[in-house]
Amino acid sequence: MSAPLARMRDLAVAYRADGRTVHALRGVDLDLIAGEKLAVIGESGSGKSTLSLALAGLLPDEAKRGGTIDWPSLGHAPRAGRDIAVVFQDPASSLNPVLRIGEQVAEGARRHLGLDRRAARERARDLLGRVRIPEPDSALDAYPHQFSGGQRQRIAIAGAIAARPALLIADEATSALDTVVQAEIAALLDTLVREEAMTLLFVTHDIALAAGLSDRLAVFRSAELVEAGETARVIRAPEAAYTRDLIAAHIDFASPRLVGGPA
Predict the structure, then answer these.
(1) What is the CATH number of the domain that holds 57?
(2) Nearest-5° angle of CA 174, CA 188, CA 85?
(3) Contact at 8 Å (CB) between 168 and 193?
(4) Are 228 and 8 in contact, with CB atoms under 8 Å apart?
(5) What domain count does the chain have?
(6) DSSP 161
(7) Do 158 and 179 share a domain, yes or no?
């Protein structure tokens, strides 16, 4: 097994609200292995998005973090945008409506890889083609509003991987899309992660989608890690009663949309 990209021990995140402490994560021990696709699943409020924000260093100032996150594979603290990139649920939150697509996708390559304007634009064109944006040459000079929601998410992914990060975090990146487009984005992430030799943290409430994409699953409930393990094992033989109930409620085992690859 490869060395952990990230090693979390006793990770906790809490907030103060209305004079009381609200725990968003508590006592999480979890390794993120370099090169793997780890899906983090659980109901709303389970702590899965808080985990991704903690890893990315994007927790709000009012959050109190405890425990440790080490980065054995990197050997240094991760650099936002260079070592870690995040794709959020709504591409409108990551795409600037008044900047051309080419500028936005090329920004990471210019800032973190030191490419000049022409080389960064070439990388942006290549990435737009790889995420299957039609006519990438024309798309470079277009604006976000000229694309569909699924296309905007593909563009956000292109921008996120422009600097070849070690870790790509997709935080509910498919949740705002219809079922067909969700599957297309999951398949795209699978391809890009393999081609770019990245590690993927896929945060979702869609268990079937997670099962088809991931190597391992981590199940969260009420701010705590319930269980983690190889996807096939967790789906077929879950150890925790909560995991069994969650899977039974969301996966139809008569369907072909099961472990073994994106739908």
Answers:
(1) 3.40.50.300
(2) 70
(3) yes
(4) no
(5) 2
(6) T
(7) no
The answer to whether the CB of 217 falls within 8 A of the CB of 41 is yes
Tokens of 156: 């956000």
Question: Do residues 72 and 31 touch, judged by C-beta distance below 8 A?
Answer: no
Q: By residue range, what is the domain housing residue 42?
A: 1-78+166-263
pTM value? 0.91
Do 61 and 191 belong together in one domain? yes
Residue 47: which pLDDT band, with cuts at 50, 70 and 90?
very high
Give the Cα separation of 217 and 207 in Å (integer): 9
What DSSP letter does each residue of 188-234 carry, written as one string? HHHHHHHHHT-EEEEEES-HHHHHHH-SEEEEEETTEEEEEEEHHHH
Mean pLDDT lowest among 62-76, 88-102, 197-211: 88-102
Ramachandran quadrant class, 164 (left: phi over 0; alpha: psi -120 to 50; beta: rest): left
Residue 45: partners with Cβ closer than 8 Å, 6 or more residues away: 222
Give the closest residue to 173 by CA, choosing from 40, 8, 79, 71.
40
- Find the radius of gyration of the CA atoms of the chain: 18
Give the 3-state secondary structure of 93-119: HCCCCCCCHHHHHHHHHHHHHCCCHHH
For the CA atoms of 14, 95, 263, 190, the dihedral, rounded to the nearest 10 degrees, stands at -80
33 and 131 both lie in a single domain? no
Residue 223: both structure tokens together: 């701010």
**Rounded CA gap, 177 and 237, in Å?**
30
pLDDT level of residue 255 (50, 70, 90 thresholds): low
